[in-house]
């Protein structure tokens, strides 16, 4: 019989552990270096045996979803995926909105803006996959977020300058994708700054 601890962990399993670690950091149980080290181990883990030690010294979490803004989700609010397409046009997601776990977007001869400063982050992590072909996508993230940018550009640009650590307990935003004769820009902005400038377009 196979030891259950040696079974392969799923993405959802890893995310549940990551949420426990972020909550522990927000409560002061882990410092920034500790949570960063453990989060790297979480996303590299393949089995339950590798995940188990990462939370062994922490209190058991609640089974309810962990809202990142302190507001509990209403029934049906927890969204898994959303998409947006700009074909010789534009799309915008900004203001108060519920950010999904995954957001896929395409800008072809067009442009798009994804503004997360007022978004409700009901998941510990949001993944944005942006494809810009002769177009552009701008992602605006809160200045305190943990941001990872892994996209690439060919005869175009994929901006990595906003990548970096955030405050303990902040949501993790991963931006990936591809830019061809176009660009994907990721910018940090204050949650309180709501001036509409050319930088936000």
Sheet with the most strands, sense and barrel status: 6 strands, parallel
By oligomeric state, this entry counts as single chain
Mean pLDDT: 79
C-alpha geometry:
elongated
Spell the H/E element sequence: HHHEEEEEEEEEEEEE
Rounded Rg: 18 Å
- Compute the number of helices: 3
Stretches where pLDDT falls below 50 for ≥5 residues?
A: 62-72, 193-201
What's the gist of this structure?
By secondary structure, this protein is α/β, with parallel strands linked by helices. The chain is built from 3 helices and 13 strands, in the order αααβββββββββββββ.
List the helices and strands and how they pair.
Layout: H1 11-26, H2 32-44, H3 48-51, E1 81-87, E2 90-93, E3 98-99, E4 102-108, E5 111-115, E6 120-121, E7 125-133, E8 136-142, E9 146-149, E10 152-154, E11 157-158, E12 172-180, E13 183-189
Parallel strand pairs: 1-4, 2-5, 3-6, 4-7, 5-8, 7-12, 8-13, 9-12, 10-12, 11-13
